[in-house]
Specification:
This protein is an alpha+beta fold and 468 residues long. It has two domains: 17-349, no CATH class; 352-463, Immunoglobulin-like, CATH 2.60.40.10. 43% of the residues lie in helices and 18% in strands. It has 17 helices and 16 strands. It has helices spanning 3-10, 28-46, 79-100, 103-107, 110-126, 129-137, 142-168, 173-181, 187-207, 209-215, 217-221, 237-240, 252-255, 265-268, 289-301, 313-316, 326-348, and strands spanning 51-52, 55-56, 58-61, 66-69, 72-74, 232-235, 308-311, 352-358, 365-366, 372-382, 388-394, 407-409, 413-416, 421-430, 439-448, 455-463. Strands 8, 9, 10, 12 and 14 form a five-stranded antiparallel sheet that branches. It has a four-stranded antiparallel sheet with strand order 13-11-15-16, with no helix packed on it. A hairpin with a 4-residue loop joins strand 3 and strand 4 (66-69). Helix 2 packs across helix 5 (110-126), helix 5 (110-126) runs antiparallel to helix 7 and helix 5 (110-126) packs across helix 9 (187-207). The protein is elongated. It binds iron/sulfur cluster (SF4) (2 copies). Residues 233, 269-272, 274, 276, 284-290 line the site of one iron/sulfur cluster. One iron/sulfur cluster binds at residues 235, 240, 243, 260-266, 277, 293-294, 297, 307-308.
């Protein structure tokens, strides 16, 4: 075989995944992380069970396209609010990433949260890192089978609970239980339930760090938001190198060594299997396990903690930290500005909508007494949480001006239930004495009798024959 052919045969486009056996670690950051994970997972599991009034407090009602968030119900008409919320969230993420790296990945991302739960189940059923390595190398036995079965059963139960809760955000969860128990669920609900549960099973059970490494778009672009002053997890080579094994009694300076004892514990606890001593890497999810692990080693060696720690590139290079910098301030200003716009829009939002449709079949009708009538269909949409009675009116045109004297006939009051829409047929009539105009602007107004904030106006045209 030629040299070129030999080289070609060694090239692989796909790296074979080596199973990562993460070692357990305890410490300040892991306790903080566990607390964050329990709070977030608890919120996820409990929220669909909380009621607000007569309905589920958080409910994404897709068939009617309404998103209920406690006192607020967002309609498709509120798309601007939803867009502002998402833009505000994006700038918030940019701000915190530029300030403190992948905080979201390490402490808040659902992928991290559920993977951690799956790992706890793995530790409970298969033991610690060394026991798991040995178990996987051992030939199949009753004990191995029982441990693996217990692990997968634990994972599947977790998946069923998480998947069921997920569907419970879209269908009232209290109704869902008896329907699932009676196998009386729709095809869409079954598909949702299966996809949510199986996606979690493969993601948190098997894919794990590969999602962060290869599939997550945020992992790809978050590096662009980092700068020399971003706080993230660093190994301090100035203090750690030259690394090397030694006994506790050895004085590092005298032995020509740094503080890194090359124990590789920081690698063993890393959920993505990287070595933080090689510098900041795209695979690092900022879980801080290596900080806690190395601090434990430093304690045992009676060295100061912080060989691996939260720091900035500038600090590691011996320069001073800088918090306020143009990019961070720009992200922060945009985050605050968009959040304020969202808050103002939310406060100004009028949960009432009026649509006015002219009768297309007939532009106008001249009655026997010479007056002119136009017919309209009004759609009154009550987007509030309670029923209202609304007055239906038209704006009063200036006396003597075009449209003066036009009156509304048909309906002047309408009751609309919460979240409902009422359709009304109304007439506008211009008396025969009106000045001859072919097209006049008219304003329809709907206002709640019990709440002065709920007023909307919609303009339309009143048409009459030129000779009128
Ligand atoms: S845990 Fe600390 S001492 Fe051990 S290899 Fe990692 S950096 Fe070095
Ligand atoms: S290097 Fe590994 S252990 Fe350390 S923070 Fe990053 S992902 Fe976590």
């Amino acid at each position: 075989m030629s040299t070129a052919a030999a080289q070609t045969s060694q090239v692989s486009f796909y790296e074979k995944r080596a199973t990562i056996y993460q070692a357990e670690v305890d410490g300040f950051w892991q306790r903080l992380r566990a607390a964050a994970l329990f709070v977030l997972a608890g919120l996820y599991l409990v929220l669909p069970w909380v009621n607000y009034g007569q309905r589920q407090a958080v409910w994404f009602d897709l068939p009617t396209r309404k998103f209920h968030l406690f006192a607020l119900t967002l309609w498709p008409q509120d798309f601007t609010l939803l867009a502002l919320l998402m833009i505000s969230g994006a700038f918030g993420l940019f701000f915190f990433t530029n300030l403190a790296g992948r905080l979201w990945c390490g402490f808040g991302c659902p992928q991290t949260v559920w993977t951690k739960f799956f790992m706890w189940i793995e530790w409970l059923t298969e033991g610690d890192r060394n026991q798991r390595i040995l178990l996987d190398r051992r030939p199949w036995s009753l004990d191995k089978l029982a441990r693996k079965a217990a692990k997968h059963a634990g994972w599947l139960v977790t998946c069923a609970v998480v998947g069921f809760t997920f569907v419970g955000y879209f269908e009232p969860i209290r109704d869902l239980i008896p329907r699932v128990a009676a196998a009386n669920v729709t095809g869409a609900e079954t598909v949702f339930l299966a996809i949510a549960s199986l996606a979690l099973y493969f993601d948190a059970g098997f894919m794990r760090e590969q999602i962060c490494k290869y599939a997550c778009p945020y992992a790809r672009f978050q590096g662009a938001m980092f700068d020399r002053h971003t706080w993230t997890i660093f190994y301090d080579p100035g203090r750690g190198e030259p690394r090397g094994h030694r006994g506790r009694e050895v004085e590092p300076a005298k032995a020509g060594l740094g503080h890194c004892i090359d124990c590789a514990v920081c690698v063993q606890v890393c959920p993505t299997g990287i070595d933080i001593r090689e510098g900041t890497q795209i695979e690092c999810i900022g879980c801080a396990a290596c900080i806690d692990a190395c601090d434990e080693v430093m304690d045992k060696m009676s060295y100061p903690r912080g060989l691996v720690r939260y720091a900035t590139e500038a600090i590691i290079q011996g320069r001073s930290a800088r918090v306020l910098r143009p990019r961070l301030m720009a992200y922060g200003a945009l985050f605050v500005a968009v959040t304020l716009v969202f808050a103002v829009e939310l406060v100004r939002r009028v949960p009432l909508q009026l649509d006015v449709l002219r009768d297309r079949a007939r532009l106008y009708r001249v009655t026997s007494d010479g007056s002119v009538e136009n017919v309209y269909t009004l759609k009154v949409l009550n987007m509030d949480q309670k029923e209202h009675v609304y007055a239906v009116e038209i704006g009063t045109p200036e006396a003597g001006g075009p449209g003066a004297g036009i009156v509304l006939e048909g309906v002047d009051r309408v009751k609309v239930a919460a979240g409902d829409v009422r359709q009304l047929s109304v007439r506008l009539r211009a008396p025969a004495s009106e000045p001859a105009v072919t097209s006049t602007s008219v304003d329809f107004r709907v206002r709640a009798l019990d709440d002065p904030r709920l007023v909307v106006t919609e303009d339309s045209r009143f048409l009459a024959p030129a000779s009128h």
